[in-house]
Amino acid sequence: MPEPAKVAYVFPGQGAQSVGMGRDLYDNFASAKALFKQADDVLGFSLSKLIFEGPDEELRLTINTQPALLTVSYICLKIAQEASGGRLPAPAFLAGHSLGEYTALAASNVIDFPTAVYLARERGRLMHEAGLREPGGMVAIIGLNEDVLLEVCNQTGTQIANFNCPGQLIISGAMVNLPKAAEYAQAKGASRTIPLQVSGAFHSPLMQPAQGGLFQIIAKLPFRDPTVPIIANVTAKPLTKAEEIKTELIEQLCNCVQWQHSIEYMIKNGVTTIFEIGPGKVLNGLIKRIDKSIDVRNIGDIAAIKSLS
Fold first, then answer.
1. Do the Cβ atoms of 13 and 69 come closer than 8 Å?
2. Cross-strand partners of 195
3. pLDDT in tens, 85-107
4. Total Cβ atoms within 10 A of residue 143
5. 128 is catalytic
6. DSSP-assigned letter for residue 257
7. Overall fold of domain 135-195
8. d(C-alpha 150, C-alpha 305), whole Å
9. What's the whole-model pTM score?
10. Is 98 designated active site?
11. Which of 48, 73, 97, 98 does the annotation list as catalytic?
């Protein structure tokens, strides 16, 4: 017998943020307002004011972007569950792109929402500090396959940081190496190279200074086994135990995000509908390039949530 159709929830990472995200939920749902206040209280400053009013350059700082995206994505999920009256299908799997993996932790009750906000802020701080110690960046490479890009990386001292979808890979490396890597990639046939607005060489060995601090923070936090399996960024395989998740979060800092393989794993295991929960539609585009047959739906604002009911 064919396996029954399944649903997955996925949560966006850095780059999906925008000033004003989540404001419509804050204005229309008391529970959203309460969760924004909870995030503000955890961090000791008005994260919600920064999210709603900017300025954009401050929201784009890694230390702010990470808790902001987690907060808005989690609130999108909770309001969708509340407003749909039970019509939002339960997921068979959860996954998050980089920072989005932390939203998945809260969604699967590995940690509670305040702990997730705190952890996202600390991760952002540690990654920002690592970027100051080892200045680096990231570049999207469009139109090259993995084997050719690996050759580019080997020749230029850079690393593949994200396998996003066919034809879109991201590299990380020291600032001094990225221009020659981009030039070499174009010489090898890349159609475009796009520097990303980030403050470090995320998902590369240059993030090693952040690993020790994150390990110490995570070691003190109560983690539970997830209520729904989380597809790991590093291995593209399901995580079902708290200790596995702790290891994943530490390794994720310096290793490649296997997003394409994560989506392919879920599809292979019966997923036919994926809800992208959070601001923007970045993951929607990536998923459609991985498999056009998948039904991808976005839950990022009040209009999308009302359509569920």
1. yes
2. 139
3. 888 999 999 999 999 999 999 99
4. 17
5. no
6. B
7. Alpha-Beta Plaits (3.30.70)
8. 41
9. 0.97
10. yes
11. 98
